[in-house]
Structure formats: C-alpha cells, structure tokens
Amino acid sequence: MKLGWKKRVFISFGILLSVFVIVYMVLILTMDKPPLVEFKACQQILAKAKKVNADVYSAEYYSTAERKYQSALIEWKIQNERVFFRRNYAKAKELVLTATLKAEEANASSGVNKNSLKMKYLQEVELLKHKLDNYHDVFIHLPLKVSVRKNYEFGKLSLEQGLNAFSSGDIMLATKRLNEGKVRISIADIEVNALLKEYFSNFSKWQGWFATTVRLSTQSNGYAIIVDKIKHKGYLYYKGKLSKEYDVEFGRNWIGNKFYAGDKATPEGMYRVIKKKGNGDSKYYKAMLINYPNDEDYALFNSKKRQGVISKNSHIGGLIEIHGEGGKGADWTSGCIALSNSEIDELFSKTPVGTPVTIVGSMTSLSDLLN
C-alpha cells in the first residue's frame, strides 16, 4: 500500500513537472521577441543619414527619426522590465519602423535640399553683392553717419567670410554669415533710402535742367558743363553731345542744395561761367567762377529765412568755382567743384566765359540707381 501511494505521488509530480516544462517551453517559444534586427537596421540608416548631414539639410525628417528611435528604446526598456511572457514589443517595433522610414527620407532628401540651399545661397549672394556694388560705386560718396558706413563694411566682411566657408563646403556657416551681413546692410539701407527718397523728390526738375542745358549746347554749337552730384562726375558736352567726363569733388554737405554761406554745401541749378582765373590768380591752381547766387538762389535763401530754417543773420554767400587741387578722393571744398589740376587744365582751355554750368543731384533716376 505504501509503495503504491508513493508511486502515484511520484508519477503525479512527474506529470505536473512535465506539464510545467511544456507550458514553460511553449511560453518561451511563443513569447514576443525584442526587435533586435529592426533596431540594428534603424541605427545603420540613422548613421548613414548623419554622415550626409541630414540633421542639417533634412532637419525635420531627421529629428523625427531621432525622436521615434528614442521612444522605441524607452518602450523596449519598459517591456524588458515586465515578466517575460507578458512582454509585448509591438509598439517598440512600430516606433522603430517609423524611425527607420523617416531616417530613409532624411537620407534621400538631404542631397536635394543641400543643392537647393546652395542655389538659394548663391542667389542671395548676388543680391547682396549688387547692394554692395551700389554702395561702393555710388553711395560711398553720400554724407552718411559713421554707424551706417560700419554696417556696410560689416556686410562686406560677412559676405567674404561666407564665401570662404562656402568654398570649404560649409554651407550652413556660409548661410549664417550671409544672413548676418544682410541684416546689417538692411539697417544701413533704411537710412540711405530715406535720405535718397527725400533728395530725389527734385528729380523731375533736374531732368528739365539737363535737357535745357544740352539744348543750349546744341543751339550754340558750343560747350556746356553738367555736374552729377550722386555719381560725382562732371560731363563736358559739345554741340549737344557728350565729349568728356571728369571725377569731381564737392563740399562735405553736398547732398541737397546750398542755402547759406558756410554750410559746406554745393549749389544746384543752372549757372554760367562768369570769370576765368589762371594759375596764380586762383587760390586753387586754376578756377572758373560761376554766377552763384542767381535769382532762384536768392528766392530760395529768402524763403528759408522766412520759414526759420536758417538764421536771420545768415548770408547767402558766393564765390562758387570749378577749380583745381582735386583728386583727393573725398568731399572737402567749401561748396565748390574740384577737379585734378590736369583735368582743370583741359576744361579751362576748352570752355570760354559764358559756358553753361548746370549742377543736378542726379541724371539717373533713383530706381535705376538702386536696380
């Protein structure tokens, strides 16, 4: 009896153990497996995308891939902490699959985006170069504040630094430097544009003066002098045709008309040569005196006095000349027009007393100058 009971217990225990082992093995065989292959594949495509700078050129796709990958890792850790037969890696698999797809998109689009960024950069560079060319060719002569000039110079330096970075393949640094330059130049442009917009309100009047002066040259079969302040050029016309051009310099406050004696401004209007001073007769080598102030200048002077724009004790001044000693590369006269000695020699020999002298702000419209 005792042996039979023990035998039955042993057999029952054996059966239970076998059932437990079978159940355990079934659970082991059917348990959800961690997505090792999927994670390895995702890591590889992320590394590939990083190598082609997808984090820079396809930042949205790449950052999404990174976030999904990190979320998948967190979900994997959560499942690993659970009892093995309760683990479910479905969410982790879904997240890592999404991460892989986004990484592939980032990798595929980064090259296209990089090329697009390069093209955009080069286009922006051309626009900035045009603005700087305008500044150095035309607006460098404007009587601007030191801060405005510094902004232009900073823009030029930023452009050079950006181009160096671009040639080294660092498009992001190049773009950063370009944008820094654009900001500073835009700040300078605001002040320059405001100054020029007010100044060019007289453009139609300048056009009329220019046309009349050329017509006088044609009708008299003689010479006429036209001075363009913005371009700092003097133009000699003969029989209505352009004959020669000269670089000229003015008073430092040349932009705008002359209002009174001592304002360091060069007048604007239609004048004529009333006296020629040879070498030894002029303070500035040779000179040609013009008939400033004329009737229009007196009218303007008296109007500004009545408006209180200038002091009641001011005087209109005079002795405005086209003279030598120029070529300094800066505006330095007391309101006269300066040429180099060799050029005043030539102009002096060709133009007699009575030659029309017209001084305008610009012979070119503001829109044409800016574009």
Q: What level of helicity do the residues show?
A: 55-70%
Order of helix and strand elements from N to C terminus: HHHHHHHHEEEEEHEEHEH
- By DSSP (H or I, 4+ residues per run), the number of helices equals 11
Could you tell me the radius of gyration in angstroms? 41 Å
Count of discrete structural domains? 3
> Can you tell me the residue ranges where pLDDT is under 50 for at least 5 consecutive residues?
26-30
Distance between the termini: 116 Å
Instruction: Give the overall shape.
Output: rod-shaped
Strand content: 5-15%
Structural class: alpha+beta
Give a short account of the largest sheet.
8 strands, mixed
Strands side by side in the biggest sheet: 3-2-1-8-4-5-6-7
Please name the defining characteristics of this protein.
371 residues; Butyryl-CoA Dehydrogenase, subunit A, domain 3; L,D-transpeptidase catalytic domain-like; eight-stranded mixed sheet; 58% helix
What does this protein look like?
- Helix 5 (90-137) crosses helix 6 (146-167).
- 32% of the residues are buried.
- This protein is rod-shaped.
- Strand 1 (223-228) and strand 2 (233-238) form a beta hairpin.
- It has 371 residues and is α+β, with helices and mostly antiparallel strands.
- It folds into three domains: 2-112, Butyryl-CoA Dehydrogenase, subunit A, domain 3 (Up-down Bundle), CATH 1.20.140; 114-200; 203-370, L,D-transpeptidase catalytic domain-like.
- The model is unreliable at 26-30 (pLDDT under 50).
- The longest helix is centred in the N-terminal third of the chain and has 48 residues, at 90-137.
- Strands 3-2-1-8-4-5-6-7 form an eight-stranded mixed sheet.
- The protein has eleven helices and eight strands.
